[in-house]
Amino acid sequence: MVAAGDAGKAGVAEKLGIEPGIVVQEIGWDEDVDDDVRAAIEERSGSDLLDEDADEVVDVILLWWREDDGDLADTLLDVRSPLADTGVIWVLTPKTGRDGHVEPSEISEAVSTAGMAQTSNISVGDDWTATRLVSPKSANTRR
């Protein structure tokens, strides 16, 4: 049951493309993450988020990323190995003016270096923005 004030948070899981039964791995959790977003994703998918150490194939990776977290391109290369062929990575970064904000140009450069494609950006809560990444082969698959 979603309270009226939580309806917006529940919709964020849908905006992220979370469907019942998909497997979601969370990377970069820290105390500053939006727990309402996490809860909405778990509720919509019907299961707990997998942690960084999980070794199963996943449909979605949530990557919480802040300015001081290191090299985003290297991290993208490291984390995408368990991703299903049609899977997506959502890079969640603090919004402009928030601690840890990452410039969009830095994200674009890292995405290009990692050989991925950036497809969209959405707001997820008051403090976070999400950038959707896919493997170029899944973005350009033609059958």
UniProtKB/TrEMBL annotation:
Q: Which InterPro entries match?
A: DUF3052
Domain of life assignment: Bacteria
Q: What is this protein called?
A: DUF3052 domain-containing protein
